[in-house]
User: Fold this.
Amino acid sequence: MYRIVLLLLLAVSSSSCFAQVSVKDAWVRATVPHQKATGAFLQITAARDSRLVEVRSPVAGSTELHEMSMTNNVMKMRAVAAVELPAGKPVEFGPGGYHIMLLELKGPVKEGESVPLTLVVEGRDGKRESVEAKAAVRPLTAHGGGHKGH
Assistant:
């Protein structure tokens, strides 16, 4: 009996090492013909301290995590290697802050479609977890700005 309890405890504790990530309200801004980049936005919450280290999507040749900030009344955008996900605290990826750039688009992204995203989250222990999400494509006029010219 003790062996069964021990095995169950080991199974529960080993599965809790993962970040246990949830994604809400994922969306991508639609594109115009020949546009080669767009932004993806979402809310991500991890049960344990971890960080988002990578995002992949079959609609893009490459992806980057970005951060927008205001410095001396100038909006600046830069790529970041990772985004910290504090335990239990939702992190918002939206226009004007952290966001995901889908680059080298393989075709137009049309309103009403959905875009598959694979988010790679790394725990403090270095173990990685992939989280699948579907992002609804919203119109070009969807709330927020800062991606003109991308």
Q: What stands out?
A: The first helix runs from residue 2 to 15. The chain has one domain: 19-138. Confidence is low (pLDDT under 50) at residues 2-17, 144-150. The radius of gyration is 18 Å.
